[in-house]
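Title: Prediction job returns without error message
Component: structure pipeline
Severity: low
Priority: P3
Assignee: unassigned

Description:
Job completed but the reporter wants confirmation the result is attached to the right record. Sequence as submitted:
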Amino acid sequence: MNKNLKSIIDVTDFLIKNDVSGAKEIINVHYPHKFISYDKKSDPPLKN
């Protein structure tokens, strides 16, 4: 299985279980160059 697809599935699984910290940990491991913020007040709208 593609490594990126596996990480997306793992993150989705954590989010379905409402485990944001678990999802954030996987994202930080696979995509360390991305900054992940969960402060909804300061987050800009998602762009497609």
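Comment from assignee: result matches the submitted record. The two ends are 25 Å apart (CA to CA).
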